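User: Hey, quick favor. My workstation is busy. Could you predict this chain's structure for me?
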Amino acid sequence: MSNLSATFAALSDETRRRILTLLRDGSKTAGEISAEFSLTKPTISHHLKVLEEAGLLRSERRGTFIVYALQSNVLEDLAQSLVEMSAALPRRKPKKYP
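Assistant: No problem, here it is.
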């Protein structure tokens, strides 16, 4: 799977998008992220792994904790790609209604 495909696949899940939203305000431990959801810790761990493999998160071990942070440059690159793709689309003429 290409990196762009992995990014879109990661973003296709609502839980993963909520995790990214939580991390906009700064780094959080896995426990802090997990506390925001009514899901098991292994389920949250899976979502974090998918996001990290897509390059949307980075993790760092701090003592006994794993801290996750948003990789905003990947989201910025994705947004730029979407803008470029939409600019390349042919312009549609507006429909005329009676």
